[in-house]
Specification:
The protein is mainly alpha-helical and about 100 residues long. It is built from 5 helices and 2 strands. About 60% of the residues lie in helices and about 5% in strands. InterPro entries: At2g23090-like (IPR039713), At2g23090-like_Znf (IPR039438), SERF-like_N (IPR007513), ZNF706/At2g23090_sf (IPR026939).
Length: about 100
């Protein structure tokens, strides 16, 4: 009797039919999402680029004592700290060609 009551509540559908209909909805949405990912991948065209090469070319400040390279955006106080802590020298002795802030 319980089975019959359940069918009446669920509009006469079997349990198996009900579960199949639910799974077909989720598969459709998954396919849509995959299609959208593929479409977006085609539209972007550009791939992620590495910043490493750019950073290497930007290292144009060189300590004349140890030849350590620094990015061109490195400021004078940081370079002065390097000269004093690593070599016990003045900023001007380690970085005579420095033209910055």
């Amino acid at each position: 009797m319980e089975g019959q009551e359940w069918r009446e509540k669920n509009n006469g559908l079997d349990h198996e039919q009900n579960s199949l209909s639910l799974s077909s909805y989720t598969m459709g949405n998954g396919a849509k999402a995959q299609q959208k990912r593929e479409r977006n991948a085609k539209n972007t065209g550009a791939t992620a680029k590495s910043q490493l090469k750019v950073n290497e070319t930007a290292k144009n400040v060189i300590c004349k004592t140890c030849f350590q390279t620094f990015l061109m955006t490195t400021r004078q106080p940081e370079l002065a700290q390097h000269a004093e802590n690593k070599h016990g020298k003045t900023f001007e002795a380690c970085f005579p060609d420095f033209k910055g802030k």
